[in-house]
Amino acid sequence: MSNLNASHKVMQHYLSALLTEEPVIKQTVSEKTPEADVLAKQQQQQLNALLAQASQKELLQVSLQNKLIEKTVAPVITNKQTANLLATQPEVINATVVIEKVTEKVTEKAAEKTLKKAPEKEYRKGRFQALFFQLAGLKIAVPLKELGGIHKLGHVNSLIGKPEWFKGVMLYREQKINIVDTARWVMPEKYDQQMQQQLDYQYVIMLANSNWGICCESLVNTFMLEQEDVQWRQVEGKRPWMAGVIKEHMCVLVDVDAMIDLLNRGLDITA
């Protein structure tokens, strides 16, 4: 824009000079006197001086503009290069913060695992019936809804390489039932030779639809229970096979699914 203005000014000066000296120029052309030659030379010198002055101003303005651009652009480029350099630098991680966050997550997961509620069973809604049975002076109850059946204990074929609490396999109407020595499984720390000799298993309690059956000496009875009659196990942890304790009878209510899972894995209550 400044270059254009300078050019306009030069043209204005040039046109003004031409307009003011027009009669003289005409006279010079027509008369061609020595005075006219001198005047023409003077006019040409003035015009050249104006053009030279305009060119110097234009060059000066261009030089100033270049310097201004350099001053303006240089910091921007420097800042951009600095930003790129900082962007390529590896981020410094605060190890303390990372350790604290990892510790918090591990603690939260451990707390969630500890406080994880046991899955709700169907018998946890309202009243339910339970079958009570005894073995070695211990009373145990099983929810009727998770009772697979009751059989008279028959001949058991022992198998090699099985846990001590695994008595063997009993055939019942072409069904192979895995027989559990319940006393040895439930209280291995108290199971000794004397208890083994005194035990007189009579029945097999089938666990739900599995092939597992636990032995008992006698069937006590079935009782109708309210939810408040049982001190329920609130969180998963030790003794997952225990759904709770029936307060009045002071006996264990079996979590059948959890017990089946342990038996399938070859584990007893010490697991």
UniProtKB/TrEMBL annotation:
Superkingdom of the source species: Bacteria
SUPFAM superfamilies hit by this protein: CheW-like (SSF50341)
InterPro entries hit by this protein: CheW-like_dom_sf (IPR036061), CheW-lke_dom (IPR002545), UCP020479_CheW (IPR014506)
PROSITE patterns reported for this sequence: CHEW (PS50851)
One GO term (biological process): signal transduction
SMART domains on file: CheW
Pfam families in the cross-refs: CheW
Domain CheW-like: 127-265
Protein name: Chemotaxis protein CheW
Species this chain originates from: Rheinheimera salexigens
